[in-house]
């Protein structure tokens, strides 16, 4: 049985932690810290297999792979084969790479729900369900298609239709900043309405496409406050003929919208479950014979 799956960066920050046997939150955090301490001190040419009895108890083994800034970790007992677990990590990473086109840490941060869905298609309840990356991708694409179809119905009130031309905010970035007292759904792709009183814009001559907004949001995450020439670097990352002034103005609009949401001046829509949503859950259990 697989006991846990973890993805953490080289600074010890967990990007995914899923335990298949119950552990209190405090215990989970302790285990994550212990795993990182064990991995960060290992040499690059060391084995990918680690005895984990001291961390997870008797009959525990840990296998990991280090990709760029991320550690992918599987913890399991003696009923699982070590080489098979190493290959399963490869399947997981290959699927993420296909899904996000050269996956990086930011893709995982901004698409946490989708990453969970992919993992659930590979491992469910501690048991291996699928070892083919192609089969997992088929299911992930079908779920994305159903999500897109269910989100095609507009939920934006007429009073906020003027928001359409404003900068987009990725679901994870918005949820972490603005929905502190609400728990967002794993796939929050629907448009969240903003205020009907927009910040005056003088950069209407510049068209901010969805692609430019994505580049803008990623650049904000990479070039934090205190970065030398921050706005120039962000403008360069967005590309095109985007000027520093346009980037600053775009950021001010974004910040204005977030402040309105944080002050509860803009209500979030109440999503009702639909047949498409329910079918997503059936897809994730397609391999179980219940």
Question: Your description of this structure?
Answer:
It contains eleven helices and seven strands. It is an alpha+beta fold and 290 residues long. α8 runs antiparallel to α9 and α9 (230-238) crosses α10. It is globular. The two termini are 19 Å apart. The model is unreliable at 154-165, 171-205 and 284-290 (pLDDT under 50).
Short overview:
With 290 residues, the protein is an alpha+beta fold. The protein has helices at 25-40, 53-56, 82-100, 105-110, 112-122, 133-150, 171-178, 210-222, 230-238, 244-262, 275-284, and strands at residues 2-9, 14-19, 49-51, 61-67, 70-76, 123-124, 127-128.
Describe the structure using short key phrases:
disordered C terminus; about 290 residues; alpha+beta; five-stranded antiparallel β-sheet; two-stranded antiparallel sheet
Task: Give the SSE layout.
Layout: E1 2-9, E2 14-19, H1 25-40, E3 49-51, H2 53-56, E4 61-67, E5 70-76, H3 82-100, H4 105-110, H5 112-122, E6 123-124, E7 127-128, H6 133-150, H7 171-178, H8 210-222, H9 230-238, H10 244-262, H11 275-284
Helix pairs in contact: 3-5, 3-6, 5-6, 6-11, 8-9, 9-10
């Amino acid at each position: 049985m697989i006991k846990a799956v973890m993805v953490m960066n080289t600074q010890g920050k967990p990007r995914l932690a899923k335990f298949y046997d119950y552990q209190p939150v405090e215990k989970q955090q302790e285990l994550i810290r212990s795993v990182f301490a064990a991995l960060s001190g290992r040499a690059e040419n060391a084995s990918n297999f680690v005895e984990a009895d001291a961390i997870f108890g008797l009959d525990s083994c840990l296998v990991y792979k280090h990709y760029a800034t991320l550690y992918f970790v599987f913890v399991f007992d003696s009923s699982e084969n070590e080489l098979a677990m190493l290959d399963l990590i490869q399947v997981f990473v290959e699927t993420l790479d296909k899904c996000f086109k050269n996956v990086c840490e930011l893709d995982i941060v901004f698409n946490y729900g989708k990453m969970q869905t992919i993992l659930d298609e590979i491992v469910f309840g501690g048991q291996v369900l699928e070892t083919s990356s192609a089969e997992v991708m088929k299911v992930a694409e079908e779920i994305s298609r159903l999500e897109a179809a269910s989100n095609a119905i507009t939920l934006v009130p007429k009073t906020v239709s003027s928001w359409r031309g404003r900068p987009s905010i990725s679901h994870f970035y918005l949820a972490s900043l603005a929905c502190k007292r609400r728990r967002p759904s794993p796939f929050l792709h629907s448009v969240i309405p903003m205020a009907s009183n927009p910040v005056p814009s003088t950069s209407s001559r510049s068209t901010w496409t969805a692609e430019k907004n994505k580049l803008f949001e990623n650049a904000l995450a990479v070039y934090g406050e205190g970065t030398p020439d921050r706005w120039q670097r962000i403008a360069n990352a967005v590309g095109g003929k985007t000027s520093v002034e346009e980037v600053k103005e775009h950021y001010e609009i974004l910040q204005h919208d977030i402040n309105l949401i944080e002050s509860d001046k803009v209500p979030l829509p109440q999503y009702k479950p639909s047949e498409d949503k329910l079918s997503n859950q059936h897809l994730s259990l397609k391999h179980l014979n219940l």
